[in-house]
Amino acid sequence: MVRRTRVTAAALTAFLLVLAPAAALTPATAIAQEPWNSDPSTSADLTYQSEDSDLPETRRGTQFLQLSIDTVAPATVTTTSEPFVTVRATVTNTGDRRVDDISVRMQGADAVDRPEKLRTSLTLEQEQFGAVGEFQDVAESLERGASTQFVVSLPLRSTLGPSLGIDAPGVYPLLLNVNGTPEYGGTARLDDARFLLPVAGVPRDPTAPDPTAPDAIALPPSTSSPIATTVMWPLADKPRLAAGIPGSLEDKVRLVDDELAEELATGGRLDKLLAAVEYATSDQLDPENRLADSMCLAIDPDLLVTVANMARGYLVVDDPADPRGAARDGTGRDAAASWLSRLEPLADSMCVTTVPFAQVDLDALGNVGDASLVSSALDSPSTIVDSILGVTSVPDVVWSSSGQLGARAAATVRSVGPRTALVADNSVAPAAAGGVALVTGGSSVDAELKAAVFDAATATALAAVGSEPSTPDFTPEDQRFDLEQDSRTARLQDAVGAVVYHALTPPNGTPRNLTIAPPQNWSADGDEPAAILSSISSMLRSGLASPRPFTELLAEPPTGMPVEARTVQQAGRDTNNEDRVRIQSGRIESLAGSLIDDPQLPLTPRLYTAPLKEDLLRALTSAGKDTDPADAAEMASIRTSSSEEGVDALFDAVTVLAPGGVYTLASEQSPLLLVAQNDLPVGINVRLDVDAPPEMRITDVGATALPPRGSRTITVPAEVDDSRNLSVDFSLTTLDGQQLGEASTVSVRSNAYGQALAIITVCAGVLLLLLAGRRLWHRFRDQPDPADEGYERP
User: What DSSP character marks residue 156?
Assistant: First the structure.
């Protein structure tokens, strides 16, 4: 949804230049030349179109001015704040002409009274911001591309003049409205900027005649019913490890880029996310551990694996599509080691859980339907995090990166045993027994999969914070709009307002619970993470909120929340990539099942093949899909291709060597001697597959163990019934029949004569018998044998 309140004078200008006579003013021109600072209603959205025009009405043409919020003070109003709001902003001429007489005023709307209004109030028509300040001149004119910064203030409440009319704690939508006169046009409202102002307490009204009057004194919020608060704090990143490279004890890992080094370094995104927790949970700011008790670090094991390997030194490839090609040394070794050393004590002192490996898309994982991949994605994360950080993380929790679970994803999660799925509160439906059941495709999934929920409205606002704002899948359509229209400051204000909204809402008799969950791959950096945690910490210290540990959230069924059944969209599903991943996973499992686990060797089959399985999970990651889906899809394809090439190389490293020339058997039952070569650093069991003609019979020799980076001679019993040259194809396979390497063709010749030899032998025997019989016949008759003529004795 594009915010309808942003209006330009482009339509008016086109009307004047094309339709209006040069010497006369049309009614539209007269309207445009009227001042816009007399009444809020005159600043409403207008369209400009002749009565007989065939063109559709338009609300947006060329945008002449762009308004951007720089700072808001105070960011959160309390009873001790100054009794007015001050906004520093910048107005920029983004049009194609000069704009004159630029003025700005601040306006306010009623407090948000429903969670969905945390978003929809930011798209209200301008006239619905009924509290109006005076226009303030900020520039006589701005040329094309020029900008100017200004400051505008307005009292929260006042008896002497215009104010925002804020007389009770709550979250209030505010608006800055900029007017100007484009060259060749009339005065019009050219842009606006909106944000939420959380008011945790109303300061006193210094303009009131009686400072002790009820409507003049400071008004603190009610703390009689604090909201039980749980905070998920994600530490995750896009997959960075190059694909297709098996595990090694000596070789440096390879990364597709070196951006993670910047994120881990001082001032980087991951540094700021970690520093915000360190500071906010320090003994000075959190002496009673209220914030620490309410928080749980949600760590992506893929990030942890990458950082741990970076700390030992790493390479960065020049081309992500060629992971084995040219590479350079990475620059983030020290930053990685420092970040990891800071995370370890922090993780040891507070709750830690994991997200699925590489933030894998659980619905895509379900579509692939591979049990070994599911285990790597959901069972391995806790083991990885615990072993690297030396902690015991909260197990059996699956936090879906999309905030939802489709039917296949839910079945996949159930397949690994009892689990609790953490999803958005508008992605569940109430079960008959008062618990919850996941909703997919309009029908409830088996209730044995328990659901814990986070607040969807707060999560949506937090997703808009940072350098790469996004709108989560679970956000309803009527709460979506173009986030790029807002400055980072405005989006941060909206997030802070959403965080404190539920704490400022009066109790309604139902349990007051709040789970705050930013996106797993959160782009918040700079002062943004600290500002979010500062707001939560203030809620806990002031009594507006109470800490609720993550383990308590898992133990308690969610109740009293709005319910809206939502389904996972499959429009962007890449079935080709899923099919390729499924095939590759089967090949890797076949190879792993044939490798030999030698206790004397430090490199085990699991360590050798685990990176290959993890590559496939990285190819199914959800990271980046919501901000740059095209780039995410391209990277997924590159990873899958690299994985295919890498696994092909491993299969080709085990082969049978064919003897040169013709292999001659000494007899018809002489064995064949073949050499099997293994270039892998791990031993492997292989089987010999033979494709021989009918004249040759080969005895199965069973499984043969090949040593690491070595060879072995295989004696193959053979029986040949023909003396001709026979072509026989030999190849090695894994134990379950997947071919390794290329087949070798052997030309075999036997000294045996086969059937011809048998006939000759029989004929010779018969002839011998005949000749011997003839001689005996003549001897018995005492007759000389004619064959002896010439050989008589003298």
Answer: S
Q: Are 501 and 115 in contact (CB under 8 A)?
A: yes
Q: What is the DSSP string of 204-262?
A: P-TT-SSTTSTTTS-BPPP-SSPEEEEEEEEE-----BPSS----SSSPEEES-SHHHH
Contacts of 316 (CB under 8 A, 6+ apart): 254, 255, 256, 257, 258, 327, 328, 329, 330
Query: Are 472 and 423 within 8 A, CB to CB?
Result: no
Written as one string, the DSSP assignment of 279-294 is HHTSTTT-TT-HHHHH
Bridge partners of residue 91, in order along the sequence: 67, 148
pLDDT tens by residue, 255-294: 999 999 999 999 999 999 999 999 999 999 999 999 999 9
Q: How far apart are CA 258 and CA 316, in angstroms?
A: 6
Q: Provide DSSP, 97-141.
A: S-EEEEEEEEEE-PPP-STTHHHHGGG--GGG--EE---EEEEEE
Q: Quick check: 240 and 524 in contact, CB under 8 A?
A: no
Q: Which helix (H) or strand (E) covers residue 614, if one does?
A: helix 605-618
Average pLDDT estimate for 239-250: 94
Predicted confidence (pLDDT) per residue in 677-703, tens digit = 999 999 999 999 988 777 777 888 889
Give whichever of 59-68, 421-430, 593-602, 688-697 has the largest mean pLDDT: 593-602
Q: How far apart are CA 422 and CA 401, in angstroms?
A: 9
Task: Report how far residue 165's alpha carbon sits from residue 592's, in angstroms, rounded to the nearest whole number.
Answer: 69
CA distances from 424 to 257, 562, 565 (A): 33, 11, 11
Q: Where are the alpha helices (DSSP H) in 619-753?
A: 629-652
H or E stretch at 484: none
Count of CB atoms situated within 10 Å of the CB of 360: 29
* pTM above threshold 0.85: no
Residue 733: beta bridge partners?
Answer: 687, 739
Query: How far, in whole angstroms, is CA 468 from its chain's centroid?
Result: 13
Please report the DSSP string for 33-87 in residue order.
TS-SSS-GGGGS------TT--SPP-S-SS--EEEEEEEEESSSB-TTS-SEEEE
How is residue 129 written in tokens? 């911001």
* Partner residues linked to 103 by β-bridges: 137, 179
HSE (CB half, 13 Å, CA atoms) of 627?
Answer: 16
> Does pLDDT of 738 surpass 70?
yes
Q: Token digits for 23? A: 């010497």
* Model confidence band, residue 115 (pLDDT cutoffs 50, 70, 90): very high
Burial group, residue 789, by CB count within 10 angstroms (0-12, 13-18, 19+): exposed
The DSSP code for 352 is E
The one-letter amino acid at 772: A
pLDDT at 449: 78
